[in-house]
Write a structure and sequence with these properties.
It is a single chain. With about 400 residues, this protein is α+β, with helices and mostly antiparallel strands. It has four helices and 15 strands. The chain has an eight-stranded antiparallel beta barrel with strand order 6-7-8-9-10-11-12-15. The chain has a five-stranded mixed β-sheet with strand order 1-2-3-4-5, with helices on one face. The N and C termini lie far apart (about 115 Å).
């Protein structure tokens, strides 16, 4: 075939050759994009679900708070705030909530206890009216903060995506940077659209911010000072065995009032010792003792050490003699005690203790000016008891 006839055919093949080059270039570009994207996908971290904080809850509506939400409604309110159900009976943390009437209004107390039964947080919320709606919202918020304050902040926001700079400019646009707009539409945003940076700012939830017009007055939140300064009152009934308070080893009954604050406590103990007798050749003398002990105590977890004083009376009477008489002796001295306390739930406690009394005035029993018995310089006691929390 002459070259003059071949030229038109070559001219027809030229576009096909260019197209084939474009296809090859496109395949190479696609392969490069896939190869660059694959490692990026492999570097995406895998999120691992962590166990969420939980707690057990006891809720009590006392007299005057019957219109407040019940237990199920309070649990639902807390779960709605946290976004999950945080209540488990076997949780190590316990939250105790009590709502009661006070001075024409309402008082809610939220106590937080750790696994050992120690108070680690307390909050009091007051309402000047008997309307429990706003008070209940404050209680639900206080419980939510005590259990899981992090969940109230919401999930972390992702950084705004960076715009794709697009393909590199060619030809006459090679000197134009991506920041330089090519037309007016590129720099004028559409008023009907919003980008990631133009989203309106969200106000924080109203319950988390103080409301000047609110009738609810809250004390310091859990774990910020109020819990360690909380004052609790206990009343306990003890059974004792005493030695040398009266002439024999005798049982005694004691009523103990305990007021504790942080690591310190004061105790008042009223005790009655059962009668005992001492006998001589002249006859027999029967005596018993009633006294009052006052202690100042320091606490360390379940143990407490106490030091104080006591004062009391020892009535006595003679028997098996011609002219029996009655008399009353005064007893006083110093007292030391070491105790162990264990909580049952949040209201009751079991206590055990040992102690010694060191009398300054040693009691003495006589018949016809003849001494029948004299108290020891140190007397001991062992006691066990059960107490209940008053407030």
């Amino acid at each position: 075939m002459p070259w003059s006839a071949r030229l038109p055919m070559l001219a027809q093949l030229a576009p096909l050759t260019q197209l084939r080059g474009v296809v090859v270039l496109g395949a190479v570009s696609a392969y490069w994009v896939c190869a660059s994207v694959q490692p990026a996908r492999a570097e995406v971290p895998v999120e691992v679900d962590e166990p969420r904080p939980s707690a057990s809850l006891t809720y009590e509506r006392q007299r005057g708070a019957e219109r407040c939400p019940d237990d199920a409604e309070l649990r639902d309110a807390v779960s709605a705030r946290l976004g999950y159900v945080p209540f488990r009976d076997d949780a190590p943390q316990h939250v105790r909530t009590v709502i009661r009437a006070e001075r024409g209004g309402l008082l809610a107390t939220v106590d937080v206890f750790d696994a050992d039964g120690e108070v680690v947080g307390q909050r009091e919320i007051r309402s000047r009216t008997r309307d429990c709606e706003e008070l209940a919202r404050g209680v639900a918020l206080a419980i939510s903060v005590a259990i899981d304050p992090v969940s109230l902040l919401g999930p972390p926001t992702d950084p705004a995506p960076q715009p794709d700079p697009g393909p590199a400019p060619t030809g006459g646009d090679a000197t134009r940077t991506p920041e330089q707009p090519t037309d007016e539409a590129a720099v004028t945003p559409d008023p009907g659209t919003e980008g990631p940076d133009s989203a309106p700012e969200m106000d924080p939830p109203g319950e988390l911010a103080p409301n000047p017009s609110s009738d609810v007055v809250a004390a310091s939140p859990p774990g910020e000072g109020a819990s360690r300064d909380a004052t609790h009152t206990w009343l306990a009934l003890d059974g004792q065995l005493t030695y040398e308070v009266v002439p024999q080893l005798r049982p005694a009954v004691a009523l103990r009032l305990v007021v504790e604050r942080a690591r310190w406590a004061t105790e008042l103990v009223v005790r009655g010792v059962f009668p005992a007798s001492a006998t001589s050749t002249l006859g027999r003398v029967t005596a018993w003792q009633t006294d009052l002990h006052a202690y100042a105590c320091g606490k360390a977890r379940f143990l407490r050490g106490c030091a104080g004083a006591f004062v009391g009376v020892m009535p006595a009477r003679g028997a098996r003699i011609d002219q029996p008489r009655r008399g009353v002796g005064l007893v006083t001295g110093a007292a030391l005690a070491l105790g162990f306390d264990h909580l049952f739930g949040q209201r009751f406690t079991f206590s055990a203790r040992v102690g010694v009394d060191v009398p300054l005035l040693r009691p003495r029993l006589e018949l016809d000016d003849t001494r029948v018995w004299r108290g020891a310089p140190v007397s001991g006691l062992v006691s066990v008891g059960i107490g209940a929390r008053l407030r």
